[in-house]
Design brief:
Elements lengths: L1 H43 L5 H29 L18
Helix pairs in contact: 1-2
Length: about 100
């Protein structure tokens, strides 16, 4: 098991060394896009009233939720666990 752990950790380091610059670049572009969305929203609601302030706030919340969800997805799908493990899933089926 120690040899398997060493191999997994080495592969993890290789993967992270390769993916981190790409991931960083993507996250920078995503942050720029978020900024642009918020800037566009500010322009749209430049002359806000009490009624439009509510709409603006809803739109700000929607933008935040969309980007936060995407950041979470990127993190969950590209960042690997530091403690390697093998998950074994078994399906038991009765006869009949």
């Amino acid at each position: 098991m120690d040899e398997a752990t060493k191999n997994i950790l080495a592969a993890d380091k290789e993967y992270n060394d390769r993916i981190n610059p790409i991931l960083s670049q993507q996250l920078d572009r995503l942050e720029q896009l978020r900024w642009e969305h918020n800037r566009q929203l500010e322009l749209k609601f430049e002359n806000t009233t009490a009624i439009t302030e509510s709409k603006k706030q809803k739109e700000q919340n929607r933008i935040k939720r969309v980007f936060d969800d995407y950041y979470s997805w990127v993190e969950e799908s590209t960042i690997t666990e530091k403690a390697p493990y093998i998950k074994i899933v078994a399906v038991l089926r009765g006869s009949g």
